[in-house]
Predict the 3D structure of the following.
Amino acid sequence: MALFRQLDSLLLALRPTLAYQTLLKRSFTRQAALCAEGDVVNGAQVFEGKPEIVEGPDSEYPEWLWELTKPAPEISELDPKQDKLYWIKTKKETIRNDNALRSQLS
């Protein structure tokens, strides 16, 4: 179950479109509820002739993996003098606002 939660967060980070996020949340929520330790993860093994991948206990996974599910901090929580993420988020927000204004003018 933990593996699906981590995979969900990772895929959401890679594909930021809202429609894709909604689709992933629906599909992985259903699968995560059905997956437990010892379950076979169907479709995860891509090599022919190899055994299927089995979900292990949470203790077998590295600690940094559980950090992937934590939501990113908001801009108001970041310090501009210390956090590079502050400037990345500010730039993205500025670009979004600029694009919205340009689309209204056209």
Notes: The CA atoms of residues 78 and 84 lie 9 Å apart. Residues 84-105 form the longest helix (22 residues). Confidence is low (pLDDT under 50) at residues 28-34.
